[in-house]
Amino acid sequence: MTDPMGLADAVRNACVKAALDGYEQAQIAGLCQEGAWECAVDAIRMLDLKAILAEKAAIPPPPRGPASA
Question: Is the pTM of this model over 0.85?
């Protein structure tokens, strides 16, 4: 089973990266701030969640430390 917090963190990181990349590309293309924001939101909407889930599932969870007595 995948760690829920690890999965949530992976999704959040992917959303932030998509938004920043989308905004930057829109600004380079000459869009106004409002248009760039719309592109950033669209980039989040277009994220391939299945790919994030598959990638996260392929990574084994970190080893747990020894149990304290």
Answer: no
